[in-house]
Automatic annotation (TrEMBL):
It comes from Oreochromis niloticus. This is Activating signal cointegrator 1 complex subunit 2. It holds the Pfam family CUE. One of its GO terms (biological process) is regulation of DNA-templated transcription. Residues 1-30, 602-653 are annotated as: Disordered. GO terms for molecular function: ubiquitin binding. SUPFAM superfamilies: UBA-like. Residues 417-460 form the CUE domain. It comes from the Eukaryota. PROSITE patterns: CUE. Transmembrane segments: none annotated. The gene is ASCC2.
Amino acid sequence: MACARVPLDEQQVTEPGPLGKERTLPALHPDRTEERCFVPYKPPPEDGSPADVEEFLEHARFITEDLEWLLALPHDKFWCQVVFDESLQRCLDSYLRHAPRGLDLSTLPSSPAVADMQRSIHKAVFLTFLRMATHKESKEHFFTPAVFGEIIYENFLFDIPKLLDLCVLFGKGNGQLLHKMIENIFTQQPSYYNDLDETVPTVLQVFDTILEKCGLQCEGATAAEPMKLNAHKKPTAMTMSQQELLDIILYLCDSTTTINAFLDIFPAACSSFQSHGFLSSLTSFYETGVPDLEKAIRKRNFDDKSLQEDLWKRLSHSCRKMVETVHLLLHHTCLQPILEGRENMQTFAEELLQYFTSFLPEKRFLTDYDEQFPVADDISLLQQAVPIMYPQPAFDAVCVLVPAWFQGAMCPVIGAELESLLSCIRDLLPDLGEGFLLECLKEYNYNSELVINDILEDRLAPSLAKLDRTMPRPVKEELPAVLNNRSNVFDGDEFDVFRREQVDMSRIWKGRRKGENVREMLNDKRHVAEQKARYHAYETVVDELDDYDDEYDDTYDMNQVGANDLDGDSLLTRRYLWCQTLSPTLHSRLCCLPGCSFRPERSSNVVGRPKGQGQTTETLLDRRKKETNKSRGANHNRRSMADRKRNKGMIPS
């Protein structure tokens, strides 16, 4: 019998040998393994035919019974079976590889018997791995920690791919147990950290492979390297076969979901992913690959619309998991150390801000990230943690990292852009009415991807869930025609095509009318006769023009109107002469107006005072008037014309 309080790896047992003779063996020995054949796991049938369902149930029953038998074994016998029974490891590995993931569960047959059996296998497999990861079951049943780490490592009971699968399969509802389980594995065997470090480049290769398959990256090139000129000859997401597109989407969905689950359950692995530039590679792939795959799913013709919807749902799920993974990495490698008050807090803060800055070129990714995890919240949390190192003004500046183009995303979308969004959604969901889709786009700030995803997953906001999904687009009220309200001087004429159904085209020509003689056209005075009626109302004016008095014109010629604008006496003279030509009544009225008073002209005085005593203003004006009016009685026009030219600025003064 095994000794109490001795590690299993040091225990010895005595038991009968093949010939009935007793022998002493280590507690962990191949000869102590029971003969048991564990069958590999097969997933539930997709078609759900009775024969396939019955086969699955029988096969699954064998696995469940064998695992329950295994779990009931004592500590030493359990570990002998785990370490030395290869069929058991094949059974467990097959379940990790083929068991349906979260999105696959919706495609399983609706048979209650199948669902119950699947849950039974799922529970038995999880409990088996949980016991395998426990080095101490009780005070009497335990391993030496170092030996335990060596056993699980050298016998490949656990490796990084298995841990990834365990997280994605059993993480929901078992997060704490899985965390303790994986943490114990890494604690007892630190070599797993080295394996993880070597695995991250392989994980990154997933994204490069997808870009290469889609023709977005050359084989062997990195995301930062340019494509070769002949790269367009390779298949793209639009030209590859439908099965290839399906495989790529499934591959992406499985990979992103698995990585996210592992980092969520075991945050200590974030530093290993971060050290290989996982953040920059992931965001770059998101910006480059996701739009191309979305376009392919929307634009390609699918005979099975349910397949198209499933692909879109899986791609949307992948996008959410990628965004969540970036948030996990930022939180556990930058924010968490700051919140815990570790040393070099400023270094972690600067690193976080640097990452946000590096996201700016990735507009599509940054938009989706801010939708799930507002950048302003992270910045606010950072400011609360390190207010001394980063005062409020500094953080206000950092908030500008969310650029203006993202803030503009809240603006309504109209015109061709709105029609494009509607077309994208209706390509995938043709049964929905445009009116309903318009309301959804308004609710989701015109993010068509979120609209499609929430419709497929039936997660619409309550306000939208109440709407009729076949609601048509509202009819726009037609605006009144501009021509009905216009006003033009040519309205109603013989050429008004907007109000006349017929127009005499013989009166319309381009250029000179054919056969037209210029002299005859000039001699044609018909238009003069046509205008007589129009001017008949102005007959009185015409009569006054016929009675035109030539002396009136001579009066203005005599006084040279406009020649000497600066001469005050000439202005008064012209005003007086003009008033004299008016009727007496009008003349008296004008004289009563302000500024128009008139006094009889006084006698001139050109002699003035004796020389040396100065002259009055009146004398100076009289002398100037005499000089100006000399031209009336003799041939002195030369002086008058010279004055006129000088007053008009034609010769210098």
